[in-house]
Write a structure and sequence with these properties.
The strands form three sheets. Strands 1, 2, 3, 12, 13 and 14 form a six-stranded mixed β-sheet that branches. A six-stranded mixed β-sheet has the order 5-4-8-9-11-10, with helices on both faces. It has one domain: Rossmann fold. It is of the alpha/beta class. 39% of the residues are buried. It contains five helices and 14 strands.
């Protein structure tokens, strides 16, 4: 798989590159013809800092930002983004005048939840939802439902890579999209041309990475 990897440069920074492997892969909600690997952007401090800088330029400046909710292992980007937000003077209603950076728990039933000790970082807070990759938007919808259940208000959604531009009328700010990852396609589980042609799934993938089959 890895010897097929191709690279797509970021239009907004020469410090960031999207890595992708063509093939037949399965996510929890769809089948895709490229595995998009954003590991280096999430785990290398210099790239995470640069991603945070770009995301900060896209965050609405006419609102409060109190909390960043990180999905898919994006906590390093979230930490740098909190610094960028505070440095740019965006207001917060938090008593300590600083930004919370938290991650939800996902239980065995694939439900997203916040434990009691983190509820205070969600209830009544203005939230940036940060993700690694977005294909169908289903993870975002589940996260929005969870955050709203706990009383939070999502004012911005940011994803390193996304094939869609909005969910529930909230625009998705992204570093890469299908104009960057040329020929990227996602298919419903029951309408995948690879499956219909008898091509085996090569790996299960999600925002954390891939597991070969």
């Amino acid at each position: 798989m890895e010897n097929r990897m191709v690279k797509f440069p970021c239009k907004e920074s020469n410090l960031l590159t999207l890595h992708a492997i063509p093939g037949h892969f399965a996510t929890s909600h769809s089948h895709i013809n490229y595995y998009v690997d954003v590991t280096s952007i999430k785990t290398r401090a210099s790239e995470a800092r640069e991603a945070a800088r770009i995301f900060n330029s896209k965050v609405p400046k006419n609102t409060y930002i109190d909390t960043i909710v990180c999905m898919d292992g994006t906590e390093m980007i979230g930490a740098f983004l909190s610094e960028e937000i505070e440095r740019s003077g965006i207001m917060s209603i938090n008593r300590h005048e600083t930004t919370y950076v938290i991650s939800p728990e996902i239980n065995n039933n694939n439900q997203i939840l916040f434990r009691d000790n983190n509820k205070g970082a969600v209830e009544g807070k203005h939230i940036v939802l940060l993700l690694a990759t977005t294909t169908t938007g289903e993870t975002i919808r589940r996260a929005l439902e969870c955050i709203r259940y706990y009383g939070g208000m999502v004012v911005c959604i940011a994803s390193i890579f996304s094939t869609i531009d909005h969910v529930d009328d909230i625009e998705i700010e992204r570093l890469f999209d299908t104009n960057d990852a040329v020929n990227y396609e996602a298919f419903p589980l029951l309408d995948c041309p690879f499956c219909k042609n008898g091509h085996r799934i090569e790996a299960m993938v999600n925002g954390f990475g891939y597991s070969k089959l």
